[in-house]
Write a structure and sequence with these properties.
Shape: elongated
CATH architecture of the largest domain: Orthogonal Bundle
Number of helices: 9
Helix content: over 70%
Number of strands: 0
Number of domains: 2
Radius of gyration: 24 Å
Strand content: under 5%
Order of helices and strands: HHHHHHHHH
CATH superfamily of the largest domain: RNA polymerase sigma factor, region 2, helix turn helix motif
CATH topology of the largest domain: Rna Polymerase Sigma Factor, Chain: A
């Protein structure tokens, strides 16, 4: 019996207790983390998803059947499904980080247009920084996730009219910020 199989056996015979499972975590966590990090390319997200994998493994440990696959294979299957679930959830979301907007380019645009677009996105980021946290949240829900005011109000526990008012003011601030920038460029 290998050391790995011994740890699995010990964890199973002790009722899947968390101390015995801890040894398995120590052994397999680095490989699971590397796999997930490679797939998602973000350290913090990889840490969160790795944690989720081991939570699922601990909860489902009693259902693990060693005759079907090695423990590592079982964990990797959980990791793979966790990453797939993450991307599936992300694809349902309509919002996108503003940084990702830099990567969107139309194939038929000229270098000049691309330069202007990049400059506008940079300015948008600067203008968004002027907004309050609540204004940013409402703008991202409204325009990023394409929610209506009622949905935004429900999420943020505000009245629908309050959302509309805050959104109106935030958009006006953004418009004024862009006008300042455009006026500064013309001088």
């Amino acid at each position: 019996m290998s050391e790995s199989e011994g740890r699995v056996y010990q964890a199973r015979t002790t009722g899947g207790n968390t101390e015995a499972f801890g040894g398995l975590y120590e052994q397999y966590m680095p490989d699971i983390y590397k796999y997930i990090h490679y797939r998602v390319g973000n350290i913090h997200l990889a840490e969160d998803l790795t944690s989720t994998v081991f939570e699922k493994a601990l909860k489902g440990f009693s259902r693990y059947i060693s005759d079907r696959a090695s423990f590592f294979t079982w964990l990797m299957t959980i990791a793979r499904h966790t990453v797939i679930d993450h991307y599936r959830q992300q694809s349902r979301r309509k919002d996108m980080p503003l940084e990702a907007a830099n990567d969107i380019s139309s194939d038929n645009s000229s270098p000049e247009r691309e330069a202007v677009r990049r400059e506008e996105l940079k300015r948008l980021r600067l203008c968004l920084e002027r907004l309050s946290r609540l204004e940013k949240e409402i703008v991202s829900c409204k325009f990023g996730a394409e929610m209506n005011n009622r949905q935004v109000a429900g999420i943020l526990s505000l009245s629908e009219s309050n959302v509309g008012t805050i959104l109106y003011r935030a958009v006006r601030k953004l418009r004024d910020c862009f006008r300042e920038w455009q006026n500064g460029q013309r001088r």
